Automatic annotation (TrEMBL):
<dbReference type="InterPro" id="IPR050678">
    <property type="entry name" value="DNA_Partitioning_ATPase"/>
</dbReference>
<dbReference type="InterPro" id="IPR027417">
    <property type="entry name" value="P-loop_NTPase"/>
</dbReference>
<dbReference type="Pfam" id="PF13614">
    <property type="entry name" value="AAA_31"/>
</dbReference>
<feature type="domain" description="AAA">
    <location>
        <begin position="158"/>
        <end position="349"/>
    </location>
</feature>
<protein>
    <submittedName>
        <fullName>Cellulose biosynthesis protein BcsQ</fullName>
    </submittedName>
</protein>
<feature type="region of interest" description="Disordered">
    <location>
        <begin position="1"/>
        <end position="30"/>
    </location>
</feature>
<dbReference type="InterPro" id="IPR025669">
    <property type="entry name" value="AAA_dom"/>
</dbReference>
Length: 484
């Protein structure tokens, strides 16, 4: 019995050991929004901001913008385009073997010979020199090779609007890189910045003092011409004319050529923008109320044609504001090709769908309003038309967004370009240096990184160029048929 008790006692001892104090669970830190002291939060808070505070923030940002933009300036405070090496020229710009390229230079000492940073080192050329070399190869080289890009004679420049009312989709960077691609390909390019934020203007080193250096006076001139025509009708029927204010009078003196500025790219010109351009969004509806028959959507197209701009360039890129206002409507109505950048996410897909819905509502409303009068007067009805419309995927990450991109492609079909603009290390590093990727010196990167980074933008440009050439060819054939 005692033995049994002993075993029981031992058993109880073992049970007591198992019933010891429970092990402590590790402390999990609370989320950062718990236990915030109101007094500590008050101590961190600055004084309330007044209207003057916005000016101070703007001044700080302006100083930062100037400092960052200065990274791309030369010793004389001007932006300059980098040089291009023999390797880069023969790989990307002029389709000849490197050895043949060198033989041609040696046989033609009057051609640009480039410069070497070291004795016997690689030769480097300005883009101006590359364009001269391309012209030589086009005149003297094989006719089977594309030394100069296809451009039918007698047809006007093609206008390309890059638009979306959702910000942050890569709209301006897409427009800028396509403009640079086209310039490297040999086209004469004009960039028109319709966005009062002026990001495109900054990319190309433009400086615009006020709204009189933007497209604003061109739109004002178009309205002034309309008002004068209306006043002639009023006077003919015995009514007093509507007076023209000083803005309209001054705008009549300005031509597009007065606004076009050279950039650091020899074959890219710019009509820039700055904050005061936003005033157009308030002024245009005033003119529209005063002259209801004024076709404001034709303003940009008409003045560019009247001033001969469409004959001076091959491609004109229009960077629009991230809103469907009057400036955007002018850009979209003027465009032959509409590109809509967006990311591969539900929110951007949803927003872009609404953007297309708003485009439909806006332009259908204009057509219906105009065509009531057109039918009554027996005139041709208004119908807007675009040669091509494409959605372009930007900032694409194949590892994370492939499924979403495939779904978007399935829903949008041919409207979405199958080429996807990857976000690579080259793009990020070039952006930090306030450069487009084509302005970046490949020696600042691993060469494979540079090649991969270029590939995604080269593919985007190739898709755009197929659209451009197809449209020009269609028009060229139509013109030939009409002439028979």
């Amino acid at each position: 019995m005692a033995e049994t008790k002993g075993r029981k006692t031992a058993g109880r001892g073992r049970m007591e050991m198992r019933k010891g104090p429970p092990a402590r669970e590790p402390q999990v830190p609370l989320p950062p929004y718990f236990n915030i002291s109101p007094d500590a939060a008050l101590a961190e808070l600055e004084a309330p901001l007044t209207t003057a505070g916005f000016a101070e923030i703007a001044r700080s940002c302006a100083q930062g913008r100037e400092d960052l933009a200065a990274r791309g300036l030369d010793a004389e405070g001007r932006r300059s385009l980098r040089l291009f090496s023999t390797w880069e020229i023969t790989r990307y710009l002029i389709p000849v073997a490197t050895a043949h390229f060198r033989r041609v230079l040696k046989a033609n000492p009057d051609l640009p010979q480039g410069i070497s940073e070291t004795e016997g080192g690689a030769k480097w050329f300005t883009l101006d020199e590359v364009l001269r070399l391309r012209a030589h190869f086009a005149a003297e080289g094989s006719k089977a090779k594309e030394y100069r890009p296809y451009r039918p004679a007698g047809l006007p420049a093609k206008l390309v609007a890059v638009a979306n009312f959702k910000g942050g989709v890569g709209k301006t960077s897409t427009a800028a890189h396509l403009a640079m691609s086209a310039a490297l390909d040999g086209y004469r390019v004009l960039v028109i910045d319709l966005d009062s934020q002026g990001s495109m203007t900054s990319i190309f080193g433009g400086r615009v003092a006020d709204e009189w250096g933007t497209v604003f006076p061109l739109l004002a001139r178009h309205y002034a011409a309309h008002l004068q025509a209306e006043n002639r009708v009023r006077v003919a029927r015995g009514d007093p004319p509507v007076p023209m204010d000083e803005t309209l009078t001054e705008a009549q003196k300005i031509r597009a050529g007065d606004l076009i500025a050279k950039t650091h790219w020899p074959n890219i010109d710019l009509i820039g923008a700055q904050l005061n351009l936003y005033w157009a969004e308030f002024q245009i509806p005033v003119w529209r109320m005063q002259g209801r028959s004024w076709k404001l959507w034709d303003a940009l197209t008409d003045v560019l044609a009247e001033d001969g701009v469409l004959d001076r360039y091959d491609v004109i890129f229009l960077d629009t504001p991230p809103a469907l206002g009057y400036l955007t409507i002018n850009g979209l109505a003027a465009a032959d090709i509409l590109l809509v950048p967006l990311g591969a996410s539900f929110l951007e897909f949803d927003s872009t769908g609404r953007f297309f819905d708003m485009l439909h509502s806006t332009f259908r409303s204009i057509e219906e309003g105009e065509n009531i009068a057109a039918r009554a007067l027996g005139r041709e009805e208004l119908a807007f038309e675009w040669d091509a419309v494409r959605a372009v995927l930007t900032r694409y990450d194949g590892a994370q967004q492939a499924e979403m991109a495939a779904l978007m492609q399935a829903y949008m079909g041919r409207t979405m370009a199958p080429e996807r603009q990857d976000f690579t290390a080259l793009i990020g590093q070039a952006g930090e240096q306030v450069n487009g990727i084509y302005e970046a010196d490949y020696r600042d990167f691993n060469r494979d990184t540079y090649i991969r980074g270029r590939e995604t933008f080269d593919a985007t440009y190739a898709a755009f160029k197929r659209l451009l050439l197809g449209i020009w060819r269609r028009e060229e054939l139509a013109a030939a048929d009409a002439a028979e």
